[in-house]
Amino acid sequence: MDWGRWSPCYPWACTNAGNPETEWYNASQVTVGNGVAILSAIPVASNGKPFTSGLIQSHTHFDFQYGYVEARVLLPSGRGLWPALWLAPSSQQPSPEIDIFELWGVDPTAVMFAVHPAQHQQKNHVLAGANLTLGFHTFAVDWEPTSITWYLDGVEQFHAGLAVSTPMYVIANLATLGTVAEASTTTFPAKMAIDYIRVWQHP
To answer: What digits encode the pLDDT tens for the residues 142-161?
Structure first.
């Protein structure tokens, strides 16, 4: 992994106390092979958390305002897994936030697209269908000055007509939920494979 372009923890810490994540992120859980980045979660305790996992984020390396973001990803399944790709504010405020996707490993047929704006009602959409962990899929969001549109494999899935103008950076992470015992049926190491993440910034 080119750590000159990405960082392996959130800007504030290597976990997120603002939600129920139960992992500690470590650069050792991010590897690259054959052009694919792998974020791996393992049931090994670290810094008081029951799991150790992988995260990459672009803050201070690449921040932008408005654009089309697309990633080709192979997602893991299993209880206790919470892979996501999202945009967070460069100001380090808790919102707004644009979730390009979130998937709960316990139900790999449901994926959520959401935006958590600072001064608007949260908007989200849960798409239920085929098992999204059986192969690579492309997830994308088109962030315009007055709207946000989500795509899965090139097909529009959700549109929110609202204005989010805060500069953002990109985060891809394999979070965990609950305890090791609760994830006893999950195969570890669990892996989130990223073929690419691309951003086309709007003028």
So the answer is: 999 999 999 999 999 999 99
What contacts 8, CB < 8 A, 6 or more positions away? 1, 14, 25, 26, 27, 30, 54, 55, 56
Tokens representing residue 94 in the block: 């808790």
Question: Quick check: helix, strand or coil at residue 29?
Answer: helix
Region 57-201: CATH code: 2.60.120.200
Strands (E), the chain: 23-25, 30-33, 36-41, 51-53, 55-57, 63-64, 67-74, 81-89, 97-103, 110-116, 123-128, 137-144, 147-152, 155-160, 168-176, 190-201
Which tokens hold the place of 100?
């390009």
- In tens, the pLDDT along 161-187 reads 989 999 999 999 999 999 999 999 999
Sheet strand arrangement including 155-160: 30-33, 36-41, 190-201, 67-74, 137-144, 147-152, 155-160
Sorted by where each begins, the domain ranges of the chain are: 57-201
> Is the whole-model pTM more than 0.90?
yes
